[in-house]
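Q: What would this complex look like in 3D?
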Amino acid sequence: AQKVTQAQTEISVVEKEDVTLDCVYETRDTTYYLFWYKQPPSGELVFLIRRNSFDEQNEISGRYSWNFQKSTSSFNFTITASQVVDSAVYFCALSEFNAGNMLTFGGGTRLMVKP
Amino acid sequence: DGGITQSPKYLFRKEGQNVTLSCEQNLNHDAMYWYRQDPGQGLRLIYYSQIVNDFQKGDIAEGYSVSREKKESFPLTVTSAQKNPTAFYLCASSIQGQVVGEQFFGPGTRLTVL
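A: Here is my prediction, written as structure tokens for the whole assembly.
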């Protein structure tokens, strides 16, 4: 069975600090996809990134970067020079290829960036 | 603009009443999903539909029902059998194919039982 664990339930940082959100997953499939979503106070989930299991290359998008390590089953998300607008709940999710598009979500990490 | 709409944004229900939450998408996606989110928790799948006139139960389907008569629409009914319906409900859609694509989410409906 697939499972996603986000051990950090809440993180508080001061603006301009770097912050890393951890995500650990479990799956028996060799082909799977990992996602990160952002949920701002408005409630709607915003897609950030999708990564397939065969691509371990790290990705950077502006202040956001992702570190995918199959050896530790982790897909961590780092925000560099955090801003108040980054305050949100962040979800990591997993989809096994044989499960179609079904997503299993982690419990989420609430990030609070203080000015 | 393409997207997913959910209505209403806030919904209040008396105990024992059935209520229906609306979800419409104009993204031409085949698959649609309903999730429930409780405070401080992740999303749990209620029902999903991969094609018109077909749907499957998710992890927490008891007390809920759905229909998929049109590709664009996937309404969720919260029945009186759902013992603790107060929650935030999110609808999503995605393409259906060999590549797993991201799900696109609506703005959500916050249901409160009075």
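A: To summarize the key features: Residues 33 and 63 of chain B are 16 Å apart (CA to CA). The two ends of chain B are 36 Å apart (CA to CA).
Q: Very helpful, thank you.
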